[in-house]
Amino acid sequence: MSTNPxxxxxxxxxxxxxxxxxxxxxxxxxxxxxxxxxxMRYAVLGGGKRLRPLLVYATAHALDHDSPALDAAACxxxxxxxxxxxxxxxxxxxxxxxxxxxxxxxxxxxxxMAVLAGDALQALAFELLANPATMPDPATGMxxxxxxxxxxxxEGMAGxxxxxxxxxxxxxxxxxxxxxxxxxxxxxxxAAVRLGALAAGADAGTLARLDRxxxxxxxxxxxxxxxxxVEGASTELGKTAGKDAAAHKPTxxxxxxxxxxxxxxxxxxxxxxxxxxxxxxxxxxLAELADYAVKRTH
Length: 298
Prior knowledge:
This protein is mainly alpha-helical. A two-stranded antiparallel ribbon has the order 1-2. Helix content is 70%, strand content 1%.
């Protein structure tokens, strides 16, 4: 079994910070509706790469900033990600029974409770960003809310999932495939970076540079996912391997072949590194996350 490369101390510290913040922001299970609260915690705290919270923290660190707003933003973007996975796994969507090495939320709690858990996680994400106790000035807070809302909607994650469902059994051009994944996967990754940058008060030029980085990382993450779906085993991936091919979904390997997919992956990570080079040594964690998107084994 292959393993992910070792992480830096900053990487591990950021993961632990995200885990603590997520545990604190989720509702306890000692009050009704208990089953809904259990399903919410199950969906979020059952493992995961925490890439999106890491990107929030890494971006702010690159800009020499830290504040409670970062924990709210990191949790908000991860809660949106978790809700999307719960809904994507439903029988009406991707119909998957395995996620992060465990039964998917609807298998563990039933379809109705899984839908409600996803709904509640999405609402909690926006509640966190709208909390004046942790958010910066109102104008910045509104920009952060707008960023996350756009990443979730018809022009972002939900739209990408709709394109994904419509693409099953059809051939797509490479630009169409990249657009689909820029919405489905990339939009929330770009939002995570932008949330960290907005909290840090980044100027327009820095925001544009970081968006180029995030766009490259988001697409690289998906190309690697497609490669792992071909090469990986379910026991290591924590989800069903080979499912894309079985469902006749267009993927980078199915369109480009494996060698060209690997070459595209290398191009994307090089673009990510180039975008953040002017930020210097403080962007080391951002650089590490770009490399992780390429080298991860699950």
